[in-house]
Amino acid sequence: MSTRRYSDGPNPRDSTERSQVDSSLNWCERPVNATLRAMSYVMSVARSVFATDWHKRRRWSAYRRGAVVLVSLVVFSALFNPDIGALASVAALYVGLQDRAADPPRYTVRIMLTQSLLLATVVLVAGVARTAWVTSLILIAFAGLSGLTARRDKAVSRLFADIIAVLAFLGLSSVSHTYAAQAATAVLAASLLQTALTRATVRFTSDLPERRPVAAALLAVATHLEDAQVRSVRRTGEAATAAIGSADASLARSDLSHQRRRALRKLLGDAEALREEAAALRARRAFDTAVIDDDDVSAAIEVAADTLRTAAAVLAADSTPTMPALSKSARAASHLPECAARAAEVAARPQARGSATAIAHQAVRVARHTNRLLAADATRRPDREPHVRDTFSDDLWQPGVMDIRAGLRLALAAALGLLVAHLLHLPHGGWVAATTVALLRPDHRALTSD
């Protein structure tokens, strides 16, 4: 009788079966992991699209623009027909969206006036055109212009993109001359009403268009500084540099008084100094150098970040000159003395490292320059007002390689969208091109961020 030998080593048959089971489990997990990754991507996109920056709310401006849209819809629907009333309200909406507190007020009014005239002209030309090819060519041309100016001036790029949307609403088919004249008249009247009301409220506006980019720069530097030791967030330095550059460009075209612009530039200088300190701290990790484990450095970073965020809250608040004591800016400014005292205490520590002292001193400067800004003259100088013609000449006649590439890409995308709509016999094919241009614009985040 033979006996079976048992060994303590691994059984090849068992290992083969185990590998087959693991392989089947991996095949089952792959669809699940792919689904989870897809859901995570969709959720991140949804959060980016529907994220709302409540600091950018301007309720009275929104009420005014909404009232013009509603009045345009009701009046021109009664005068002509509901289609023309809807077209006029859409034009008023797009012209009103130019007033987004990102440019000097008088420059915004000029952009709105230019857009009003262009909208009426394009609606008239497209309406009386004998063939849809004329409207399609106009749409493709404005798509290219929108891409050509997207990197340089968001207001001008949005102007051209809005014309595409109005053309899509009008449709690509020809209409009677009477209908085209009525539509152009309604569009011009609604747009000019929106522009006139915006111009009438210019004297009540503040320097919010210049303050908000500086506030965004302060917040970006605060994030960069807080992450300097741990390096848990990528590209914070690039974001801070871009925000400071955008704020500097906004101040360069501002028509504010010299005193007010100087105070804002002082804050930008403080932000740049703190960005450099944060970059020096992050460089230690890049070269595998030990992190500075020091309570003074940590305290300086914390108080500097708090001071930057408090100063940003002061700048981003929509304060008005008529009620400064009741404004959000005044309430946020009440926390600046506490931040300055904490920073001065860290800077005065005798054993503090040089990094801690430098960061704390800069935090004190941020608080001091923010207080100076609140006391600076906020009037505007008419001799420094930017002109729309200079913007158009710079953006359209002196484009860069990236600008030309963006313009050609959007023009091609619009042409392909119209071709697909024609091949599929879609009744409102202009919306395919308008949606494509809106999504492919280099400044597409302006659709939600502003």
Tell me the strand percentage band: under 5%
**CA gyration radius, whole angstroms:** 29 Å
State the helicity in percent bands.
Answer: over 70%
Q: SSE order in H/E notation?
A: HHHHHHHHHHHHHHHHHH
SSE-based structural type: mainly alpha
Largest sheet: none
Q: Quick check: average pLDDT?
A: 79
Count the strands?
0
Report the uncertain regions: 1-8, 320-326, 444-450
> Count of helices?
18
- The general outline is elongated
- How far apart the termini lie comes to 89 Å
Structural features, described:
This protein is an all-alpha fold. Helices cover 74% and strands 0% of the residues. The chain has helices at 12-50, 59-79, 82-96, 105-128, 132-149, 154-170, 177-200, 208-226, 236-252, 258-286, 295-316, 328-333, 336-347, 354-375, 388-397, 401-423, 430-440, 446-449. α4 (105-128) packs parallel to α6 (154-170). The longest helix is centred in the N-terminal third of the chain and has 39 residues, at 12-50. It is elongated. Mean pLDDT is 79; it is low at 1-8, 320-326 and 444-450.
Task: Record the SSE blueprint.
Blueprint (H helix, E strand, L loop, with lengths): L11 H39 L8 H21 L2 H15 L8 H24 L3 H18 L4 H17 L6 H24 L7 H19 L9 H17 L5 H29 L8 H22 L11 H6 L2 H12 L6 H22 L12 H10 L3 H23 L6 H11 L5 H4 L1
Helix pairs in contact: 2-3, 2-7, 3-6, 3-7, 4-5, 4-6, 4-7, 5-6, 5-16, 5-17, 6-17, 8-9, 8-10, 8-11, 9-10, 10-14, 11-13, 11-14, 13-14, 16-17
